[in-house]
Amino acid sequence: MAENSTNVVDQYANGLLAMVEAEGAMERVEDELYRFARALKANNDLREALSDRQVPVERRLAVVDELLEKKADPQTVAAVAHVIQSGRGRLLIDIIDAFTRAAASRRDRVVAEVRTAVELSEEQRERLRKALGEVTGREVELKVIVDENVVGGVLATVGDTVIDGTVSRQLARMRSKLAGA
């Protein structure tokens, strides 16, 4: 991302953060925005529909309403709509990711994106949070994504650090050891 885009992303992220903090719905909105950004990342057609300036803004906002209206906090819908109305739809994922990092940072935490094959129990989440906290030396905020591509185990990303504890990775290590033996 170009430096100018980075400045725009940070400005929008901080603006959304101030708006959401003022409304007092931070945790829920942060989680909903994060999940929305992951859905956008996974769906090229949706990402293009929301960022295509040839599509009238009213139509793009109608798509957002249809997707989020009864499922998300009004602040979540307002945040996404604000970015799209401002003509920054192409930066929406980056803005939401910057928003998530800034919100965690204000709580003196780091964000860990964790991909698993199945939903984690609260006990598993807590153990994982503690383990990642020991590795990073900071409090960790988990964003768990159930990913059908993860056969088993956990793939955690904290900033630039990737911790791959998936079954696929373990099998690859075993294959490598056997090939070298």
Mean of all residue-level pLDDT scores: 90
What is the helix fraction of residues, given as a range? 55-70%
The top level CATH class name of the largest domain: Mainly Alpha
Query: What is the CATH third-level topology name of the largest domain?
Result: Peroxidase, domain 1
Number of helices: 8
Roughly how many Å is the radius of gyration? 18 Å
* Tally of DSSP β-strands: 4
Estimate the global geometry from the Cα principal axes: globular
What is the CATH architecture term of the largest domain?
Answer: Orthogonal Bundle
Strand count, sense and closure of the main sheet? 4 strands, mixed
* String of helices and strands: HHHHHHEHEEEH
Instruction: Please list the strands of the largest sheet in the order they lie side by side.
Output: 2-1-3-4
